[in-house]
Amino acid sequence: MISFFFYLFATILILASLAVVLARNPLYNVLSLVVVIFCLSSLFILLEAFFVGVILLLVYAGAVMIFFLFVVMCLNLNGQTLNALQQSRFRLLECLIGVLFLSEFSFAIKSFLTAPAMPASSIRGTIETVGKILFTDYLLPFELTSFLLLITIFGIVALAKGALSTGVDDPVETKPIGGSQ
Amino acid sequence: MIGLGHYLLLSGFLFSVGVIGITINRNVLKILLSLELLLAASNLSFVAFSRFNGDYAGQLIVFFVILVAAAEVAIGLAIVVLMYRHFSTLQADQLKDLKW
Q: Are residues B2 and A6, on separate chains, in Cβ contact within 8 Å?
C-alpha cells in the first residue's frame, strides 16, 4: 500500500515539476508548484513526518505560493514578457551543465541498483516529539528565525520606501507594494 | 519495498529539474520558482534521511528551511515587482547594473 502511494505521488511530483520548469504561462508555473508542494507533503506523511508535512502544506502552498500567485496576477504580464525560450548567450554552458547532471544521475542510479536495503526507523515526527526537540536543543536557531523575519520586514519596507522616494513612478502606482508583506 | 534510495533518487531528479529550470529560463519569476524546487528537493532528502537514520534533526532542518524560504520569497518578489516597475519586463538579462 505504501509503495502504491509512493509511486502515485512520485509520478505526479515528476510531472508537476516538469510543468513548473517548462510551462509558458507563469500562472501555470505557480499552480504546478502548488501541486509539487502537495505531493511533497504527502511523501512527508508517508515518511511519518506529520508535523513538517502539514507545516509545508500550510506555509508553502497556503502562504508562499499564494503570494507568488498574487504577484503574477498583479504584474499583468503581457505576451512580450512571456516568451521564456529566448535565445540565450550561455547555450554552451547550459548544455555542459545538463551533461554534467545527466552523468551524475547515471552514477546515482548505478549505486541505487547495488545499494543494500536499509530498514526504516520507527520515529514519528508528531508535533509532540518535534516540538520537544525544537524548544530544547534547537531553541537558539528558533529564536534567531524570528530575528530573520524581522530583518525581512525591514528589507521589504526599505525596498518599498526606495521606490517611493526616488520617484521612479507616480506615487499612486507604487503604493500597493507596501502591502506585499 | 520503498527504501531510502527511492526517495533520494526522486529528490535528485527534482533538484536536477530545478537546476535546469534556472539555466534555461530567463524570466526572473520562473528562476525564483525553480529555486523553490531546489529547496523542495533538499527538504525531501532531509526528511528521508531523518526517517531512515532515526534522527529528528532532519525534520527540524526542514522546518527552518521553510521559514528561511518564506523570507527569501518575500524579499525576492519585492525585488521582482520593483524590477517590473523599472524595466517593464522580467528578463534577467536586463539586470546589468548594480544601481539603477
A: yes
Instruction: Evaluate whether residue B99 is within a structural domain.
Output: no
Identify whether B42 is part of a domain.
Answer: yes
B72, part of any domain: yes
Is the CB of residue A109 less than 8 Å from the CB of residue B39?
no
| Dist CA A164 CA A150 (whole Å) | 21
Task: Give the predicted TM-score (pTM) of the model.
Answer: 0.84
Domain count, chain B: 1
H helix or E strand, kind and range, residue A25: none
Assigned domain for A85 exists? no
Question: Would the CB atoms of B23 and A59 count as touching at under 8 Å?
Answer: no
Output the domain CATH number for residue B53: 1.10.287.3510
3-state secondary structure A81-97: HHCCCCCCCCHHHHHHH
Q: What is the ipTM of this complex?
A: 0.91
3-state secondary structure of B18: helix
How far apart are the CA of B33 and the nearest CA of chain A, in angstroms?
7
Sign, CA dihedral B43-A69-B81-A156, equals negative
| B53 found inside a domain | yes
Distance from CA of B25 to the nearest CA of A (A): 6
| Domain membership of residue B14 as a residue range | 4-89
Per-residue pLDDT of chain A (181 residues; tens, 9 = 90+): 888 999 999 999 999 999 998 888 888 889 999 999 999 999 999 998 999 999 999 988 888 888 888 888 888 776 555 554 555 566 778 778 878 888 888 888 888 777 777 777 778 888 899 999 999 999 999 999 999 999 999 999 988 887 666 555 544 444 444 444 4
Which of B24, B86, B89 is opposite residue A94, by nearest beta carbon? Answer: B24
Distance from CA of A118 to the nearest CA of B (A): 6
A127, part of any domain: no
